[in-house]
Structures are given as C-alpha cells and as structure tokens.
Write a structure and sequence with these properties.
This protein has about 280 residues and is an alpha/beta fold. The chain is built from 10 helices and 12 strands. It has a 6-stranded mixed beta sheet with strand order 2-1-3-5-6-4. Strands 9-8-7-10-11-12 form a 6-stranded parallel beta sheet, with helices on both faces. Helix 1 crosses helix 9, helix 5 crosses helix 6 and helix 5 crosses helix 9. The longest helix is centred in the C-terminal third of the chain and has 16 residues. It starts with 7 loop residues before the first strand and ends with a helix. Bound molecules: NADP nicotinamide-adenine-dinucleotide phosphate.
Length: about 280
C-alpha cells in the first residue's frame, strides 16, 4: 500500500517574511483537520521560472503569488483564467495532475465577497462607484465591480494617464476624474473604494474631501495596516457603512485553499484574529 502524499502549498514573493498568508492557511488546515503545509518562499525574479517548474515535482499542489511576480507568472502558466487575463496578473497557481499550470486571480472575488459579507445591504446596481487608485489592486476592483453590475465607475488617480489607460481597456462604464478634484467623484456614489496605497503605514494619509459623500454609500479601504484607516473613520462620521481591507485578504485566499486542499474554509472572527497575529 502506498502512503498518500502530503499536499504542499505556499506563497512566492520577495520580500515575503511579512506575509500573513502562511498563518491563515495553517489555521484553516488545523481547524479542518487536514494534512498539508503552507510555507513562505522568497524567490528572486531570475529564479522564478525554475522554482515554479520544480514545485509540482516536490509535492506542491499550487501556490499564491505576490509582489513582484504577479504579472510575470502569466507567462509561465499553461492556462490563464479570463479574469486573470483581464486583470493582467495572477495571485493563485494550481498545479494540475496532468502537469499543467493553471493561473487565476481571486483578488476581485475577495473584494466583492468582503463587501457582501461586511455590508449585507450593499447593492452594486444602486448607484455609481468611485474608485481611487489605478494600480494592480484597482484593476481587480474595477473588473469585479463591472462584473457585479455597477452602472458607472468614477476613476481617479494621481497619475491621470493610468486612469485613462484603464478606461481605454475596460470601456464605457469608466469616467475619469482629475485627482485634484477627486472629491467630485463622490457625488451620489453608492460604492466608494480607496484602492491607492495612501493611508497605509509609512505613506501619507488619504485626505480626499468628503463633503459630497452620501450617508447611504458603502465605503471600503483596501489598506489593512492600519485596519481602521483615517479614511474609514471619516466616512463613518458621515453615517456610511465601512469595510476594511482585511476581509479582502482573507476572502481571496478561500477559493485557492479549496482548490488545493479540497475543503472550503470558514471565514469567522477567529480567522481575522489569526491574520492579525492573535
Ligand atoms: P500599486 O500597483 O503600486 O498602485 C499604487 C496606487 O497608489 C497607484 O494608483 C498610485 O498612484 C497610488 N499612490 C501611491 N502613492 C501615492 C501618493 N503619494 N499619492 C497619490 N497616490 C499614490 O499597488 P496595488 O497593488 O494596487 O495596492 C494598492 C493598495 O491596496 C496597497 O495599500 C495594498 O496594500 C492594498 N491591497 C490590499 C489588498 C487586500 O487584500 N486588502 C490586496 C491588494 C492590494 P500612481 O499611479 O500615481 O503612482
């Protein structure tokens, strides 16, 4: 009788020591009583292809991919999902039994799932969305908001050319607003998202004027260090329901865990504590 192999997964990035993904996946493995390991792997760009090709031979069933490799892995995959192709980056690889490498992006799913769970009354179709930022995270947010059926996305970014490029790529629902008049994008917006890195520890605060913010808007910040950003605190003063970025981080991990280890993990208060280091 041959003994079943222990499934391995992990996260590839550089640097990677700060990542909370190992704590999260190990917590799910433990609570579900599953065999398996999830480890951080600091891999340089020059070694990426070699490492990814070696992993399946070592018992890996897949891995997460983070900065700076999210775009480069698309080239190494045999199959790329539509949403990963649209976003232009992958955060999840699945090593299939037939030897093929499958690349997916679950960031947009994580973003929407977090909104739905944290703000149950949220309705994508209830009004325009205002999105601040036009980097990798904004691409995932925009793709998922369009999918969810928002009627319009007001996009504003410090470097206007990046917003214009996203409008050219994603089409007519995107209306570009100038960064110096970012507050105007809030007028009647029902979904408001900070997808820029402003407000993150070590970065300047995100100080968009909120005078035009509607009290019925759901306001979300992708930044999760700190967890309760000044932006979210100010939005609550306007009566808005706010959603922090930690949930997105957790929800994007759930579908990958299920694909690799065969069971859907539960997202609960303890999961958040574990990711926060508790
Ligand atoms: P990115 O590709 O580097 O983009 C950074 C964005 O922030 C760009 O739009 C950039 O504008 C803007 N920005 C940076 N510094 C700025 C400044 N001083 N003033 C105005 N705008 C500034 O990063 P990303 O991957 O999209 O990540 C964005 C944020 O989302 C980060 O805080 C990241 O931690 C967070 N995130 C969270 C999750 C989650 O699961 N919660 C997932 C992914 C990302 P320019 O184009 O003008 O440079």
């Amino acid at each position: 009788m041959t003994e079943a192999k222990i499934p391995l997964a992990g996260v590839i990035g550089s640097p990677i020591a700060h990542s909370r993904s190992p704590a999260l996946h190990q917590h799910w493995l433990r609570t579900l009583g599953l065999r398996g390991f999830y480890i951080p792997m600091d891999v340089a760009q020059s070694n990426l292809a070699e490492v990814i090709r070696a992993l399946p031979k070592m018992g890996f069933v897949g891995c997460n991919v983070t900065i700076p490799h999210k775009e480069a892995v698309l080239e190494l995959a045999d199959l790329v999902t539509d949403r990963a192709a649209l976003i232009g980056a992958a955060n999840t690889l699945i090593f299939r039994a037939d030897g093929k490498i499958h690349a997916d992006n679950t960031d947009g799913y994580g973003f929407i799932q977090n909104l739905r769970q944290s703000a149950p009354g949220w309705d994508a179709k209830s009004g325009p969305a205002a999105v601040f930022g036009a980097g990798g995270a904004a691409r995932a947010v925009i793709t998922s908001l369009i999918d969810a059926g928002v009627p319009e996305i007001r996009l504003t970014n410090r470097t206007r050319a990046r917003s214009e490029a996203l409008r050219a790529e994603f089409g007519g629902k995107i209306v570009v607003y100038d960064w110096v008049k970012a507050g105007n994008a809030l007028d009647e917006a029902q979904t408001v998202v900070n997808a820029s890195s402003l407000g993150m520890q070590g970065k300047p605060d995100f100080r968009v004027p909120l005078d035009g913010l509607s009290s019925t808007a759901v306001v979300s910040d992708l930044v999760y260090t700190p967890l309760d950003t000044t932006f979210l605190q100010r939005a609550r003063e306007f009566g808005c329901v706010t959603v922090d970025g930690l949930g997105m981080l957790i929800y994007q991990a759930a579908p990958a865990f299920e694909r690799w280890f065969g069971m859907r993990p539960e997202v609960d208060a303890r999961t958040r504590e574990v990711v926060l280091g508790g």
